[in-house]
């Protein structure tokens, strides 16, 4: 009989170490603190072009965390505009390039393409998800925002966010664990039990 495993809760601070990642399992809850970097597909392309040309990025990739998001314009008196996650699979083509250079975790929404879980196992990395459709709410966990580069990309500029207790779930861990798959198994099992109960009436 398949059961949903116990869920743990952690408070973590970036930069995340390999040891931080290795304690995490799919389904775990995390409150994340520290620096994360907003980077979407155009940002990824620009960073790769800079690295290949010999230019240094304005932050260290080692043990860094990418947030797949593009903040909206900052309203007066606010730290940042709405800052919800975008679809992570759009960045899958770039992931291994940055994992090879020390990227430790990514944050976004949705399932990712085939092979991503094996990459996370290989490089001791983790994929977090956060709540889509709650961009204004998520901005309340941002205490500081800095423009680091690529201002011409608009919403896809490279931005550093300082977050406090940003709520996340571990979607893919570094052991091949998959929150989406375990959720589907649990859902099928519950439906099967309900169906069997109906047959017994």
From TrEMBL:
Its EC number is 4.2.1.2. The keyword Lyase applies. Keywords: Lyase. InterPro entries: Fe-S_hydro-lyase_TtdB-typ_cat, Fe-S_hydroAse_TtdB_cat_sf. It comes from the Bacteria. One of its GO terms (molecular function) is fumarate hydratase activity. The keyword Chloroplast does not apply. Pfam families: Fumerase_C. Residues 12-182 form the Fe-S hydro-lyase tartrate dehydratase beta-type catalytic domain. Belongs to the class-I fumarase family. This is Fumarate hydratase class I, aerobic. It comes from Atribacter laminatus. The lineage of its organism: Bacteria, Pseudomonadati, Atribacterota, Atribacteria, Atribacterales.
């Amino acid at each position: 009989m398949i059961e949903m495993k116990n869920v743990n809760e952690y408070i973590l601070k970036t930069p995340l170490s390999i040891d931080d990642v290795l304690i995490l399992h799919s389904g775990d809850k995390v409150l994340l603190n520290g620096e994360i970097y907003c980077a979407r597909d155009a940002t990824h392309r620009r960073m790769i072009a800079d690295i290949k040309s010999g230019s240094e990025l304005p932050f260290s990739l080692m043990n860094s965390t990418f947030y797949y998001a593009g903040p909206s314009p900052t309203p007066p008196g606010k730290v940042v505009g709405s800052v919800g996650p975008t679809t992570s699979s759009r960045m899958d083509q770039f992931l291994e390039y940055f994992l090879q250079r020390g990227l430790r975790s990514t944050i976004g929404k949705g399932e990712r393409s085939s092979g991503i879980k094996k990459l996370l196992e290989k490089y001791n990395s983790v994929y977090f998800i956060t709540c889509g459709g709650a961009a204004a709410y998520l901005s309340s966990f941002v205490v500081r925002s800095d423009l680091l580069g690529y201002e011409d990309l608009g919403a896809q500029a490279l931005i550093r966010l300082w977050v406090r207790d940003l709520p996340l779930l571990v979607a893919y861990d570094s052991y091949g664990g998959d929150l989406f798959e375990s959720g589907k198994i649990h859902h099928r099992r519950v439906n099967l039990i309900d169906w069997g109960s109906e047959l017994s009436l």
